[in-house]
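User:
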Amino acid sequence: MHKSQFISQCLQLGLLLEVSAKKPGNVTPQSGFEGTTFKHFLASSVACFPSFEEAAERGISVFEGKLSVGEIGIGKIIQNCILDINAWQRGGNTLLGAVILCVPIAAAAGMTYLEESFDLIEFRLNLKKIVESTTSADAVFLYETINTIKPGGLNDVPDLDLNSPESKKRLIKDNISLYEVFKIASSYDSICFEWVNNYTITIDLAYPFLMEQLRFYELEKAIVQTFLKVLSFYPDTLISRKVGKKISQNISKKAAELLQLGDLNSKLGRKRLIEFDKKLRENRNELNPGTTADLLGATLGLCILSGYRP
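Assistant: Predicted structure:
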């Protein structure tokens, strides 16, 4: 199998496993929201394959010295991926955050030697180079994408109105890169925070915790435990943007309390998890920890890249 296909399949499987786990408040095989269900996420994950493969190919070209890091074109690849997702399903915005995380991961994996073992240190250095080398063109492509799909709960980056044509002109005129845009937004968006902090939630918290959980528990439980771990440490910024920081922080406290129970498969653990799930679904999808799900999708992709198989 070609390296770029392998990388794309790893990330695609990560997204499929993420949505297949019964995580509280998210779309799952058993539960969805009005207009957006499990099948829409399945279709979306499948639609990502060509773009993840292209990002990996470009990373390979950088590794071979045929392309500079700044020429990868992260913004355009993200845009193409979202267009493909929307062409293959009618459930609205399903995977924007996950795609923004996974496209650089695919490119970084392409730049990293994978033959014998997965070198996380080299991979992470490559990831840092990629996001820091994005351009104003990458920023414009992402602005166009966001304008097209209008994802729920997304606030404007201060000073750069997503709906204003003037913002695109300013990005080019002042040479504001996508990395710089995300730096501005990183205080209120965990996806942007990941970009400018070298994927610290994914790599420093979620990935090692998930790998440890997989030593002792079956996959579904390991995913749910990792989801709660991330949510307990980082209030979900999608929820924060929809209903405010205070509610988001309270949800994180509840996630921490669930983890403290220990065994979620116990009678009490199952009861509390069901109660938490019901609470998060009370007001349609307002309390859906969607950003946490995006982070888990990227984490699972990384886990599979490093050798795990379900």
